[in-house]
DNA sequence: TAGATTGTTAATCGATTAACAATC
DNA sequence: TAGATTGTTAATCGATTAACAATC
């Protein structure tokens, strides 16, 4: 039960782009890339406090990782530290910023200005690091024309022109799930090659387009999984004696359950009736009939 | 870490293995747990279309993963498929739901009712799968008393009572970063053991408490990293000939740069002047002086 | 039965970590 | 110099994937 579970990729993105990209751009591992923003944030805080240098130990603590990992991560960027001394804060801020591409301007469009779109438009961290909201877009005539975060909401029809003239390469999708793929297609068609998806849908994109997703409900479900196991009386699924039984016993047990037909539905009271071919027992079935006492 | 909440699954069979179970709950890999919600979503869609069975190939496509991975994932749960046929949709929906703990009710508190808190309170996916907003909380007297998503915003002072009486074990933090750790401490003290953090801060929690974070600005920075490399005109950092040079050459180059003192600032125009001890050149320095043509 | 598809194996790949030589 | 701390190595761990025997 690791504390923090600073989820190497809280990103929760199975990185759809990674497969076809020259495996790892520049040889920097994805896991390392995902941590660079964390280091940068910690370094920025140190910088604001005018701290001149920091050791891997201190910086790692601030970023919530261990120091060996941090040093390994930095080793992919180059040798930016000084043995016996540590890292120069300002210098490292600059190097990581540059590595992440934050020394340039990234115009972004947000599509779907509902509650979440509003929240994102107002998000301070947006503008802070090179990202700039180029436009807010919505398909709903009732929303178009209103303002959010001081910007007018424009109609989807303007998408192509905005992307082209403002050189937008990053799009944020905050539409309802039903509209997400369609919006995604249109963004890609217009020239956007990186998409941050807040809609709970799997997006299909052509090669060369990166998608990352942020999914509240998935995060909550992962928490629930672990929470369920803290409570003490865990469901026994998959942890029954069956799991530790030798192969032949398991096979025999499965066969018996199949023959019996309805054992599972009995035990798991709210389970749907099993009518289809896959009606096999899971490992949490009552196996008292076939297991030695 | 044990908290006083009703046993979530008291109807389950006793678990003889619980006592000696290793830390990783049930031996299901984290990566697999993180994908279960994805499978569940795809299965739910199939269920709504009354599709009775699905093959690993079809389901994998719908979830955006490859089928070998899906079958491996499912193998951790048990044998819920039928060779030659596939998986029973309804049955699998139930099994995964139960595995994730979604067959029980999860009351959740949201702390910090700004734009994002509002958005989350209104988020449909929240209620859909066992999660229920038990309370909205804020410290600002101007916000307290207003309503969001039909619920009254209550004062932080009520936190402890709400958590205790409603058996809340999951908290969502949508406060400004400066308040996040303090709010987190208070949630933990009150008995919350799972936290979903939207504030851009690293939270420190005691053992037994899980934290997951959702961080827009980190996601954007990761996209920017990859985007930068698509553009074609990559910065040369870390990709210079130096990286491919043999050790001795690198060492010599570093030494020379150190002696020269200001080489880097020249080349990287916006780099901060290097004044501190760690003022070494990075791999993108101009090395023409020491590298063979 | 013949065809289809699962569940599992084993090879591979990538990420983490402790330890320590290099070196400031 | 002596102490401190990096950068790197190597061991380990965990995740992915293709392939295929088992079996419906």
UniProtKB/TrEMBL annotation, chains A, B:
Highest taxon of source: Bacteria
UniProt binding sites for NAD(+): 112-117
Record feature DNA-binding region, as residue ranges: 38-77
UniProt keyword Chaperone present: no
Compositionally biased intervals (Low complexity): 14-26, 268-281
Record region (Disordered): 1-26, 229-293
Keyword NAD: yes
Family: Belongs to the transcriptional regulatory Rex family.
Subunit field text: Homodimer.
A GO cellular component entry from the record: cytoplasm
Keywords per UniProt: Cytoplasm, DNA-binding, NAD, Repressor, Transcription, Transcription regulation
This protein's name: Redox-sensing transcriptional repressor Rex
Single Gene Ontology MF annotation: DNA binding
Domain CoA-binding: 101-202
Function description: Modulates transcription in response to changes in cellular NADH/NAD(+) redox state.
One BP annotation, GO: negative regulation of DNA-templated transcription
Pfam families: CoA_binding, Put_DNA-bind_N
Subcellular location: Cytoplasm
Location (main, coarse): cytoplasm
Family annotation (InterPro entries): CoA-bd, NAD(P)-bd_dom_sf, Rex_actinobacterial-type, Rex_DNA-bd_C_dom, Tscrpt_rep_Rex, WH-like_DNA-bd_sf, WH_DNA-bd_sf
């Amino acid at each position: 039960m690791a504390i923090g579970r600073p989820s190497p990729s809280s990103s929760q993105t199975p990185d759809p782009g990674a497969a076809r990209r020259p495996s790892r751009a520049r040889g920097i591992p994805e896991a390392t890339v995902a941590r660079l923003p964390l280091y940068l944030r910690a370094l920025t805080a140190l910088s604001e406090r005018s701290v001149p240098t920091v050791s891997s130990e201190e910086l790692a603590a601030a970023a919530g990782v261990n120091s060996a990992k941090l040093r390994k991560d930095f080793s992919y960027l180059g040798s930016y530290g000084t043995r016996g001394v540590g890292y120069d804060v300002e210098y490292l801020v600059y190097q990581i910023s540059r590595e992440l591409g934050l020394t340039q301007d990234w115009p972004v469009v947000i599509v779907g200005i509902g509650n979440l779109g509003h929240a994102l438009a107002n998000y301070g961290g947006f503008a802070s690091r090179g990202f700039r909201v180029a436009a807010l877009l919505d398909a709903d005539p009732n929303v178009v024309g209103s303002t959010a975060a001081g910007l007018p909401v424009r109609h989807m029809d303007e998408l192509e022109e905005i992307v082209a003239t403002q050189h937008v390469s990053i799009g944020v999708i905050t539409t309802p799930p039903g509209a997400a793929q369609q919006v995604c297609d249109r963004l890609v068609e217009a020239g956007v090659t990186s998409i941050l998806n807040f809609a709970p849908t799997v997006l299909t994109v052509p090669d060369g387009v990166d998608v990352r997703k942020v999914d509240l409900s998935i995060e909550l479900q992962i928490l629930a999984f672990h929470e369920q196991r803290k409570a003490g009386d865990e469901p026994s699924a998959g942890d029954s004696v069956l799991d530790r039984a030798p192969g032949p016993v398991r096979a025999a047990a499965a066969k018996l359950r199949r023959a019996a037909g309805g054992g599972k539905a009995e035990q798991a009271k709210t389970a749907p009736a099993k009518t289809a071919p896959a009606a096999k027992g899971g490992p949490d079935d009552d196996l008292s009939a076939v297991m030695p006492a």
